[in-house]
From TrEMBL, chains A, B, C, D:
The lineage of its organism: Bacteria, Pseudomonadati, Bacteroidota, Cytophagia, Cytophagales. This is G-D-S-L family lipolytic protein. Gene3D superfamilies: SGNH hydrolase. It comes from Dyadobacter luticola. InterPro entries: Ester_Hydrolysis_Enzymes, SGNH_hydro, SGNH_hydro_sf. Pfam families: Lipase_GDSL_2. PANTHER family: SGNH HYDROLASE-TYPE ESTERASE DOMAIN-CONTAINING PROTEIN, THIOESTERASE 1/PROTEASE 1/LYSOPHOSPHOLIPASE L1. One of its GO terms (molecular function) is phosphatidylcholine lysophospholipase activity.
């Protein structure tokens, strides 16, 4: 029984390699909001990931596709899942959504309740897994860079991040714990406890440094197997 | 060309009749929120519609199915469209949603932006029409029964109702203008300008009289062809 | 008893005249939010009122003072009542506040509940009347210029306007029903049912035309006795 | 210069003692919201403080007065400051407000902006100090008892607590850091990370244990000099 599991596990880890060997680059879609929309800009995180791969001579092995739209919440991703993801037959999908689900509660009264956030998130995963897509779920980064849990939405962001960690476990998908990475980084690198200007330009959207940091974490998640 | 259109039109109006003739009752789904969930209760509007049909000896010609879940907004309907509607192969679907999309802005910061309301609404219609379902869209009734446009959400309810009327025209589906019916009724029948107690018990959910009024309007919409 | 009331009433109406006769101009303070803050600008409503008085050769009879601060709600007025109004010993005060009390509910979750709006409003009036100030209360104008009650905040603005009308009656102070004037004007002069561009530049703040319209209505209220 | 300061300081610490010596009990007002309103109930924190004093035979030395009203925010305290506090000539006032200022943002769109929270808070202190009242400011306790900063309002509560600590320093008044005490307690005594049921019955209002805990902390603050 145990050895069978080993084999299955082996096959699972082999899947990307097989895809690569077939001379077909691994198609990776980044599915998200305005941060991901900006990710394909000149210094965006997806662009930087492409450059990192190029520097390692691996750029022909990956096809990185941005699928971010500003203002998107989890249910917006669900609405455009077929058109923007499934129809493109990706091998890997990063789901990186949640900032607006939390933020819009305060800024326009149109955020997403936690229980519905989970429901739509798991519906996304289910449809992707049915198509054998390798899914990597990301916790939402930050709304404000203060490092003492005193940004207005910290409580909600922490809660939604916990929910995503539970979703990852429950659905057996990989986790890229961006919020943890950001929070840990800011604990070390924000001595003046500023609201913005370290990894973000405006409390949410990323500076070049923020995009670089994100690119590294996403890359780790992508190639860790 | 014109005569072809006539034939198509004729066929369209005939569809329900054909369905009836085949001894198969017309399957009607009411797709909505808590008002529709309560609609199948002892005095609910769907129950009352059933009784109205029985009184006319037409109860064997219709199968009325409630598909309402409390707290639902337009995107919740979209999430459960396949399971709760499409898989049941209905002939007719009433879409009656919008109260929570507006209300939750104020009560929990989790309402629905107008543009997204329209997007999801039209996505619902598109999938139903692809299955040749006769779709009847309803404007949201009331949050508060004051008849001088001084209920807090009247502005938004009026706006979302206009959007639904436009959706009906643009997508060529039938309209059951519940908000107009309610507002007109309250203009005549709420002389003390009370917040609740005429058609609703709590500003939103229906009294027996409210359910009866709704049943009559829905019935008119259902059988008008 | 009745004649005593007549005398008192006569004295009340005479007060402004007496003030004028004493060669001391009537000191009028406009107490409000950003609309009033802009009111002292080159084309602001207070500036235009000054020009209207000048054209009639009455500018020496009135001293018009703007006391508007952007973002102010009714309780902000209460906090600065002593410093910005009472200490200046005005003869007349226009209270024009409520837009932010309603608007901020949706835009930042920091609006004012209706019951507290009334409480603070009446506290303002009470302190002004204790100093024999002639108080003129204004209903809040508009958030959006659509003329069919489909601007998101129309319900609340209508409700708060009703509360102010009741406050005027209950406290025996004059009413300048700005919302009614604006709504009536837009019913006639917004044929395309636009959201902005008639009396406001951005749904709230006034165009030159809006300032002119407001100046005329305020002037009517000021000199009607 | 330094010795003068010593004397002043000495006099300051002596004040309560003097008051007591004069056989007049120290009048202490608890100024706050529903938690304080419940504080005078059979097991409320003020009642428990009274019992603690009685057990020590000191009940004749203190007069404890509850002045809490449900739903109150900082500006509500300001509105009733004269009637409910200043006119009663207290020796000591605990200001314990902030829960609703934060909470109502999400629950009804009528919370208090941080900058205005500070403004009204300092206006309260200024008026009390002008009457030589010893002011003790309290940070807001909790909305939810989870101990990992994942309660929705934790970010805001942490922020408002920081603001109060700054207010205490800037205005030279005493601080009773209730939020810190609660958070520290829950870190030790909420092993299952429950939302409620430890110090609160409903995430906000206090259980008997919560009232007892609060009573002890308040008592420490009251008698520490």
């Amino acid at each position: 029984m145990k050895s069978l599991f080993k084999i299955v596990q082996f096959a699972f880890f082999l899947l990307p390699l097989i895809a690569m060997r077939a001379d077909k680059p691994l198609r990776v879609i980044f599915f998200g909001d305005s941060i991901t929309q900006a990710g394909v800009g000149p210094t965006g995180y997806i662009t930087q990931m492409g450059e990192m791969l190029k520097a390692k001579g691996q750029d022909s092995q990956y096809e990185l596709i941005g699928a971010g739209i500003g203002g998107n919440k989890v249910y917006d991703l669900y609405l455009r899942l077929e058109d923007d993801v499934l129809s493109k037959k990706p091998d890997v999908v990063f789901i990186y959504v949640g900032i607006n689900d939390v933020w819009h509660k305060a800024s326009s009264g149109t955020g997403t309740d936690a229980d519905k956030y989970v429901k739509f998130y798991e519906a996304l995963i289910k449809k992707m897994k049915a198509q054998n897509i390798r899914v990597i779920v990301c916790t939402p980064t930050v709304i404000g860079e203060r490092n003492d849990n005193s940004n207005s939405q910290d409580g909600d962001l922490n809660q939604y991040s916990k929910l995503i960690r539970e979703i990852a476990t429950r659905n057996n998908v990989e986790l890229c714990d961006l919020r943890k990475y950001f929070v840990d980084y800011l604990a070390q690198n924000n001595p003046e406890n500023k609201e913005k200007g370290i990894l973000t330009s405006d409390r949410v959207h990323l500076t070049d440094a923020g995009n670089k940091f994100l690119a590294e974490k996403m890359m780790d998640a992508l190639v860790k197997k």
